[in-house]
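Explain this one:

_____
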Amino acid sequence: MNTSIIRLIIPAMVFMLCATGCKKDPANNGERCQIPRLSVINAVAFENPCAIAVSNDGKIAITTYNGFENGYGSAGTTRVWRSYEAWSKGDVPPILPSFQNIAAEAAVFDNAGNLYIAETEQVAGIAVYLNQNENFLYSHTIHGNFNNPRGMVFDKGTLWIADDGNKRVVSVRNPQSPNYQVSDAFSTNGSVKAVTADNAHFYYVQYDENRVVKRNKSDGGETYIQVASPVDISLHDGNLYVTSPSTHHLTVISSERFSNECMGTFENFDASYASAYYQGVGLLLVSHDEDEIKTLAF
């Protein structure tokens, strides 16, 4: 599939959907939950997309997962664009270099613009690419006895990794250096596909248990909400965005109130795998089965 093809979304066909969980919350004096309305404003073709990440200066990285067609441990191309405008116009090849990764199922940038790719199969490590003069140069791979390392998030300079096969979240200090330090952070007592964080809490998703979990950083206390087969979670402006490829649903949950009453489900976006917020544009949502990345406006 030519990745330069842009599928234009005709305005008359744009879905304008209200989340189903916009109910009054008795715990907040009857105010409505701040679950946004979302609409598709464009879609860009990309064959077998999996992970997506946005840097602080607006670069976009997208990985390819070819395992369904080519088998376990298949390689795929990771591409990086300088801006949303360049990506949405379908520039091919992208301005910045592309490279190959093995089963790349998660990606994240740090504050310095370095790129981290979770290679889940065979490698079981995090490939680190340093941002040097608009080029991404491979530096090293982070290992820590991982088993299917998946979603990642940076929180206060530390890299946190969902180590799915070991049922834990781990922390990595100084991850941009070959002298990184890996430590156990906490057990999840079950599967863990992705993790994100705010000042006071971690949030992670459990595919096998059908859960989105909120964990207090101070005392480790946890609460959860049932969501079918979640695989990825991202956080923007007080809302959690959870994708479930088995149902193709995008579930939006208020991170503060974190309740079924403050949760909305969008069924028409073919959500699968990752999402990432692009400042001033909207939510970039991977649709693996449709070979495209959708942009959702708030």
About this structure: Confidence is low (pLDDT under 50) at residues 1-31.
